[in-house]
Specification:
By secondary structure, this protein is of the alpha/beta class. Helices cover about 40% and strands about 15% of the residues. The chain folds into two domains: about 1-40 and about 290-420, Methioning gamme-lyase, C-terminal domain (Aspartate Aminotransferase, domain 1), CATH 3.90.1150.60; about 60-280, Type I PLP-dependent aspartate aminotransferase-like (Major domain) (Aspartate Aminotransferase, domain 2), CATH 3.40.640. It has twelve helices and twelve strands. Helix 6 links the parallel strand 2 and strand 3 (about 145-150). The longest helix has 30 residues, at about 280-310. It binds pyridoxal-5'-phosphate. Pyridoxal-5'-phosphate binds near residues 178, 211, 213, 214 and 234.
Length: about 425
Amino acid sequence: MQMENMYAALGVGPAAYRYGEAILDGLKERFEAVDAVAEYNQGKVLAAMQKHRVSAPCFAATTGYGYDDLGRDTLEKVYADVFHTEAALVRPQITCGTHALAVALSANLLPGDELLSPVGRPYDTLEEVIGIRESKCSLKEYGVSYREVALTEGGGFDWEGIRAAINERTKLVTIQRSKGYATRPTFSVGQIGELIAFIKSVKPGLNVMVDNCYGEFVETIEPTDVGADMAVGSLIKNPGGGLAPIGGYICGTEACVSRCAYRLSAPGLGQEVGANLGILPAFYQGLFLAPTVVAGALKGAIFAANVYEKLGFKVVPDGSESRHDIIQAVELKSPEAMRAFCHGIQAAAPVDSFAMPEPWPMPGYDSDVIMAAGAFVQGSSIELSADGPIRPPYAVYFQGGLTWYHAKLGILLSLQKLLDAGLAKLPE
Ligand SMILES: *Cc1c(COP(=O)(O)O)cnc(C)c1O
């Protein structure tokens, strides 16, 4: 009763609360599996921090050139250890995930080289990096060509198409782990490993980069454990644990990562420069928390899938599928339902809970987009957030939650708003 009253005070009525509890009764084993992955990954992070003797001097701020920055250099060793790579570049000077990916691509492709995506069209923002959409300073402008092989209708790899697409110019292969805003399934690390092995059997010596956004710590292994030469991501998603206020990472072979460092700073300078400006405690502590934060977000995604699936909405992945990223899509069937869902997520937030999300014409999209987020770090999508373009099938993409309990409240409040508007009905 006490709990029910607390939820009622937060805006979730008894019927929605009890429906949620009944769903949760059936998810115990799933949640245990999520916790086991988090426990393993917590060990991995701790072992790396201990091995590299993380200590208070690592948290000191540096300014200016940042030569001999102990904290920065140690953090990069820790990341390299967690991802089982020779090297890592982890910097606040990498402004976001797209920037990290752009650095990794442009550092490892030269004029005349070709980039191949064997998993279809990459994430929206990469279209301009590559030059699929005309853009200043794209790889295309620098004489790097691009080829892609679409997935099969069932969302699988087109093995023969990939073999045929690899040619004498192919230099780098980019694989996006998460579906992003596409409707294809997210790949498991195991599937990515099979794809990398195939590609390297066709042309040994090729470099493979994996866009690891939203995938970190969802499994016990990462793409770099299965042959990727680089794994790349954003620190305001999974590995920043919600504490990193900016940043990106590239973990990989010494050969690839050193080129990334020269591209990020300047030829000749590389990894030696880049002051930390006092930001490192958040990077270390965020990485330390990341495995459990990701576990909370995963539980939220699994809960949302089951809550909405049983009400008759299509959810991707479905309620029982295994998870390879933290994103949950829910097809809500109408713009009104998207609004109600996002209103619930917003109302559950610790920050800006009083705001009312409205669709707006976001640059780069051909339809209005609605977004709900009340985050401590602007734009952080490891914090509870939901968004989607206002067009059929009216899907919202739901992700994040720094704690499982916050994710749970957000989902229950979204449900309450749908019930209030008569856009969903609880089973009898
Ligand atoms: C978020 C994301 C990106 C880009 O990251 P930003 O930090 O938004 O620039 C790239 N790829 C995927 C799959 C993503 O989810």
